[in-house]
Amino acid sequence: MGFCNLSELEEAASGPLSEIAAASGVDVKECYQCGKCAAGCPVAASADVDCRGVIRLLQIGDVDRVLKLQMPWLCLSCGVCLARCPQNIDLPALNTAICRYEMKRGIAAEREGEAFMNIFLDNVEAKGVSDETMLAMRYNLQTGHLFQDVANSPRMLSRGLLSGDGYKPAGAPDVKRMVHDIRKGEGGAE
Amino acid sequence: MSRIGVFVCHCGTNIAGTVDVEAVADAARQMPNVAYAGTNKYMCSAQGQDYIVDIIKEHNLDRVVIASCSPRMHERLFRKVLAEKTDLNPYLLEVANIREQCSWVHKDKQIGTPKAINLVAMAVAKADCDTQLFTHEIPVTKRALIIGGGIAGIQAALDIADAGFPVTIVERKTTIGGKMPMLDKTFPTLDCSACISTPKMSECEAHPLIEIKTLSEVEKVEGYIGNFDVTIREKAKYIDYDKCTGCGMCETKCPQKKIPSEFNQGMSTRTAVYKPFPQAVPSKPTIDADHCRMLTEGKCGVCAKVCPTGAIDYQDVDRVTTERYGAIVLATGYELIDWTRLYGEYGGGRYADVISGLQFERLVNASGPTEGHILRPSDGTEPKTMVIVKCVGSRDPHKGVPYCSRACCMYGAKHAHQFMDKVPGGKCFVFYMDVRTPGKNYDEFYMNTLHEGARYIRGRISKITRRSDGKLVCLGEDTLSGNVVEVDADMVVLETAMVPPEGAKKLAQTVNTQLGPEGFFTEAHPKLRPVETNTGGLYLAGTAQGPKDIPDTVAQAGAAAAKVIGLLCKQSIESNPMVAHVDDSKCSGCGACVDICPYSAVTLVEKTLRENSRKVTRTVAQVNEGLCQGCGACTVACRPGASDLLGFNDEGIMREVEAYATR
Amino acid sequence: MPRDNEQTGEFTPKILAFCCNWCTYAGADLAGLNRMNYPADVKVLRVPCSGRVNPQYVLKALQSGCDGVLVCGCHPGDCHYSTGNYYAKRRMMIFKRMVEFAGLSPERFQIRWISGSEAGKFRDTVVEVSEQIRALGPMENDAPSRAAIDAVAGTVASPEADEELFAAAKEAI
Amino acid sequence: MRYANFPGCSASTTGKAYTESFSYVARHAGIEIDEVPDWNCCGASAGRLQSDDLGDALPARSLANAEAAFGDEPVLALCAGCYSNLRRALVHARESEDRRRQIEALIGQPYEAKADVVCGIDPFLEPEVAQTVKARVTQPLNGLKVACYYGCALVRPRALTTFDDEEDPQSMEAVVKLTGAEPVEWGSKTECCGASHHVSNPTAMKPLVERILADAIDAGAEAIATACPLCNMNLDMREAEINKARAARGEAPLDIPVYFFAQLLASAMGASDAEAGITRNFVPGSSLLAEAKTREVVVELTPEQKKAARIAAAKKQAAARKAAQAAAAAAPAQGKEEAHE
Fold first, then answer.
1. CA-to-CA dists, residue D209 to A40, B334, B373, D206, D227, angstroms
2. D265 and D158, same structural domain?
3. Given CB atoms, is B588 within the 8 Å cutoff of chain C?
4. Is there a domain that residue D127 lies in?
5. Could you give the number of structural domains in chain B?
C-alpha cells in the first residue's frame, strides 16, 4: 500500500517500461487483471507481490516499486501462468526481463537470485559442467545461510549422490571462452 | 445537344455567405449545353420547387443541375419534384454539393466561389450524359420464412402472423422453443421461463397462419427481396403426424431407454421414439433414427405394435419442398461453448460435479432430472458450498472467444440467488472479472444477490482439482486483496460463453449474407439498421446477430417482424434503377463480373443475338436487377467494357473528371 | 486555366478525390456540418463505391490536368457492398505500382479509407495531401511521368493486370 | 531405436538412480544409447536468466556435438531441466534462420538443428519398445497405485515441449501401466515442485513439495513416479524434513516412496534393487515393490461387464419385489376365501 501521483509516474516510467516491454515482448496493457496467473503460481503465496501485482504496478507506471520486488526473482518459469492466461501474456519472459533490467543497472546486487546465478555460471565457466555440491556450499557460504541443507549432505553422501564421476568435457576451454565472452557481452551474436 | 438548367441555392446565408451565388449562375451560363441558370433563396422550399418546375417548362429543359446542399440531403426530394410536377425523368438530375463540401468548409468567397463553379461544372458535364432511368415494380410475395424456432423466431412469427401474413418456421430440432424452455427462471423478475415460453409455443402451433417445420433445414435460397425461392428439407420423422394423436404409448413402451436426454443436458435419459419434453411443439413424438433398434438393426418394432392409430412408418423419407417467400428472418440462436475441450485446468469434463450453467438450470428446474432439488450429479447429495465461475470461454482469446457474452453476469447472479434460496445455509462464491449489469432492474438484482450473501470474488479460477472426499478444490486469486484463495466446493457451475451455432457459416452462404469475425450474422448498420442485413429482405432476430439476453432478443425479434410487415404490406416494391447493365454486343462472356459480384446478381446466359444482320447464339452476362445493388464493381472488372452502371455511367464520370481537370 | 492564385501568385493544385457515397462522402458532409476548414484544392467526385473507380478515371484526371488524385472508400470490412473496397484496394495498389513505375511521384495518387464518422480524418487527409502536392508543384514537374502515364493508359486494361487483380481480389475476401 | 544421450550434470550425482535404472531398462528393451561427446552443462535456470544468448548457446553446443557425431539421431535428455533447455535452443534455432546463424556464431561451430530432442518417457511411447517392455515384465507390480508426476519442465511451455496435454498429460501413465501398476487420477501432476530454486530458496519451496505429496496420498497413490532427477530429489529427499515439520504441528506424516518411472520398469523387469538404484532412494522403496509383486492380480471389469452386473442385480431386485407384492396380494385373498365358507 502506498501513495503515488499517477501523472508524475506516467512521465518517469515510460523509459524503463518500454525497455522492459521490448525485452520481454509483453504489452502490459493486454492484461485485464483476472489473476488466473497468480492463482496458479507456485510462489505467489510466498511472494511480496504476486505476478498479477507486478503487471498492475507496471500498468500504473510504478517502476521503482517493481524494481524492489522479490517476485521477478522468485519466478520458477514453470509456465502455469502463460498456459492459462486468457491474453496469452508471457509472464516468465516479463519476470526475466525485469531481473535482467536490474542486473544491467547493478541495482540487483542484493539479490540472492543474482548471486546464485553468478556462482552457478562461474562454476560452469570453470568446469564446463555444474557441480551441485560445490555449488550449494559456495552459495551458502556467500549468502550466509551456512547450514542450509547441510542436514541432507551426509544422507546424500551415504547414497553416493554427492561424489559424481568427475566428468569434465574435453572442450572445457571452449566452453570457458564461450561463457566468458557472452557474460562479458562479447558474444558472437549481433 | 441537351438543354441543361442550373439552379443555384442561397440556402439563406448558408451558401450565399461564402459563395457568390450570382457569380456561380453567371459562370454556369457560359458552360456547354446550359440553357438556363438562376438562383433562389431556398430551392427546397415549396416556392423554390415551383420556381424549378416553371423554369423547366418555360425553357423546355431536359436536364437539371441543382447546386445546393449534399445530395444525401435533398436529392430524393428534387427527384420527386421532377417525377410528380414535370414530365422530366427524375434521373436526369444532378446535385452539386456547394454547401457541406464548399460553403461550410471555406472562409470567404475568394475560395468558395471558384470551387462552387468547379463543382457545378462537374455536375453539368455529368448531367449531359445522364439517361432516362425507369424503376420497375417488383412483386412482393406476402409470406415470411423464419429460420430458427427459438424465442426470437417464435416472437417474430407471432407478430408477423398476427399482422395477417402467413409464416413458416423452419426448426432444426424436433421441437420449437429453443433454449428458453430449458431455463428455470428468468432474470431479473424470476418468473418461470417455461411458463412464459411454452404458451407462446402452443400459440404458434394453434395459429392458422403459422406453419411449423421441425427437423428441417434450409438447403437452397434463390431470388431476391420479395421473391425468395427457398428449398427446405424436412427430415423423416418415421411418424405420420396426420394419424398420430400424441398419446405417448410408443414412448412408454420403447425398449431403448438409455439415450442421454438433450433437453436435460445429459443428466437424464430418453427413449428412441420421444418428445424432448412434455410441452414440446409439435406435441407429437419423433423416432431418433440413430438409436432406434428397428432403424439401426432392423429388429424391434414395438412402437408400431403398440401405436393405436398405426402412425409409425419406418419407411418414412425426407421431404424436400421449394416455396416462395417475400422476406426471411434469421433467428438461428446460439450454442454454448464446449468447455470440456478447452479447460483441462477445470477437469476437462472429468469431474461430474463441475457443470455448465445450462445444466444447473435443469438441476434447479422442477421438471428437471432432480425435480428441482439441487443435487450433485456424482452422488446425489446436496451441495453445501457452490462455486460459480464466470467468463468461461468469454473474454478468453487464448482458449475461448474474445467477446463478452452479455447474459452470464446476470444468470450467474440468478444461479447464486437460486442456490442460496434452495439450499438454506449454503455458501456461494462467484468468481468474476467484472460485473456487467446494464439493463432495467439488473444492477438491483445483482446487489440483492450480494445482500442475500453471495460472496463475489474478483478473479479467475486457475485450477479445479477433485479431492478424495469429493470436494472440488478451486484455486483462485482475490485480485482486490491480492490473496491467493482456495474454496473447497461441493459443486462448481461454469457460466460458459455463447458461440454461433454449428452450420451458421453454411447458412450464411446459402442465404448470401455475411458473418462477423466471431461467426455471428452481421447487421446492416450497428446503430441505425440493427435488424437488417446488407441483403434486401433478409432480417436478423436474437442471438443469431450476437450474444444477448431474452429481453433484448424478444425486442429485436419484434423489430425484425415490424420490418418484415412493412415490406409485406406493399403490393410491390420499386426496384433501384441505378444498376449494372450489360451491352450484349460487347460482352465476351468471360464471367469476370460473375466472380466479382457480391450479390450473385450476374449470371451467364445463352442469348440469340443479331450481329451484323446474322443471328448468333452466344454466352453473355445478364444482370438480375432485383439482386443488383448498384455497387459497380463488375463494371470495372469488365475487360471489353460491356458492363456499365446506370446513373453513374463511365462516360458521365469521365466527362466529370475532364470538366474539373481542364477547367 | 488559372494555375496560379491571382493574389498571391502561389501555385494552387487541382486534386480530385473519388469518394464512395456511403463512407467518405458522408464523412466529407459531416466535416461541413462541423464547419471544419480545409483547403479548396481538393474537389470530391461522388461514386457509389470505391469499387466503382476505374483506373482509367485516374489516368484521365492525371492526363488532362489534375496534379493529384485521391481514391477514398469505407474501411476494409465496412464496405456498404461488403466487398467493393477490397477490390478497389487490390486494383488501386496494382495500378499505383504501375504508375509509380512509370515515374509518377507516389504522393500524386493515394488511396485512403475514411468512414462516415471520420470528419476529422477527412479534413486532415485533404490538408495533408494538398500540402504534399503543393510541395511537388504542378504535374508538369514530374517530367517523365506525363509521357509514361500516356503509355500506361494503353496497358491499363491488359488481361495480365486483370488476372492478377482477380486473383488478388478473390483472395482478399 | 537409437538415441544420443545427453546425461546432464545430475546424471552421476542426484540422478544416479535414474541413470542406472534407465540404462538397465534400455539394455533389455532394445533401446540403443550413444553418449553425446564433449557435452557441457545446459545452463539450468541460470543460463537463460543471464541472457538469451547464454540460454541458447550452452545447450546448443552439446546439440551441435551430438549432430556432428550422430547426425539427426534424436537427443535424449533424462533430466527435465536439461530437456527443457535443449528444446528451447532447438526451437529457437528452428524458428528463425537468423537465430540459428547467431547461435552458430556463439558456439563457434555449425548447428543445423536437424536432430530432435526427447525426454526419458518418449522412447517408451514407441509401440515396438512398449511391446518389448511388456513382454519382459516378469515381476509385475500388480495394481500398485502410482501417481505419475511430470512437474513443469516436461509439459510447459507449449511452444517448447511436445507433450500430449498441459493440464492432464497421460504419457507417463501409459508407460507405468506396462509394469502392471495402476496410475491414479490426481490434480498435482503438473504442479511445479520448485526444484530449480531448491538451493537458492528452499523455505519457499517446501510447501509446494508438501502439497504434491499430500495430493498424491489423498488420491490413493502408494507411490510417486517422476521423470526428472531434480523433481525426484526434491520430493524424495525433502519428505523427511516435511514430516518432521508436520510432526511438530501434530499432523500425520506424508509417507510415500518416490521412484523414477524407470526404476518401476526396471524392477518389474526383474532388476535387483541395486541394479534399479532403489537402494539410493531416501524414502525406502524396496519393501513396497516387493509386496506389490506378491499381490493378487485384480481383473479390471470392462464397462460392458460392469453394466451386465448392474442389470443382473437390478433384475434380481425386481424379481424379489414382485414376489413380495404377490405374497402381499395373496394374504388378504386367502382371508376372503375363508370368509365365504
1. 15, 45, 40, 5, 16
2. yes
3. no
4. no
5. 4
Question: Of the candidates B203, B372, B112, A120, which has an alpha carbon nearest to the alpha carbon of residue D9?
Answer: A120
The whole domain housing D60 covers 2-119
Q: Which of B398, B461, B479 sits opposite A33 (nearest CB)?
A: B479
| Residue B606 identity | E
CA distance B290 to chain A (A): 38
Question: Is the CB of residue D110 less than 8 Å away from at least one CB of chain A?
Answer: no
A182 and D201 within 8 Å at the Cβ level: the answer is no
Architecture in CATH of A7-104: Orthogonal Bundle (1.10)
D304 touches chain B (CB under 8 A): no
Chain B CB contacts of D165 under 8 Å are 344
Distance CA C136, CA C131 (A): 9
CATH classification at residue D267 = 3.40.50.11810
Same-domain status, D139 and D191: yes
CATH of the domain at D7: 1.20.1050.140
In this complex, do A124 and D61 lie within 8 Å of one another by their Cβ atoms? no
User: Which B positions 64-123 lie with beta carbon below 8 A of chain C?
Assistant: 70-72, 97, 99-102, 104-107, 110-112, 114-115, 118-119, 122
Quote the pLDDT of residue D232: 94
B13: containing domain = 4-129
Quick: pLDDT tens for B566-624. Answer: 999 999 988 889 999 999 999 999 999 999 998 888 999 999 988 888 888 999 999 98
Residues 6+ apart with CB under 8 A from B30: none
- Our answer on whether B and C touch (3+ beta-carbon pairs < 8 Å) is yes
Touching subunits of B (3+ CB pairs, under 8 Å) are A, C, D
DSSP B411-422: HHHHHHHHHHHH
* Shared domain check, B412 and B428: yes
Q: Give D218→chain B minimum CA distance, Å.
A: 6
B647: region left, alpha or beta (phi > 0 left; psi from -120 to 50 alpha): left
Mutation for testing the D interface, residue in B461, B467, B471 having most D CBs under 10 Å: B467
Q: Catalogue all structural domains in chain C, each as residue range(s) with its CATH number.
A: 15-172 (3.40.50)
What's the CATH code of the domain at B428? 3.50.50.60
Question: Considering the domain boundaries, does residue B470 fall inside one?
Answer: yes
Q: What's the rounded Cα separation, in Å, for the pair A15 and D331?
A: 96
Task: Tell me if residue A157 falls in helix, strand or coil.
Answer: helix
B368 Cα to chain D: minimum distance (Å): 24
B64-79 pLDDT, tens digit each: 999 999 998 899 999 9
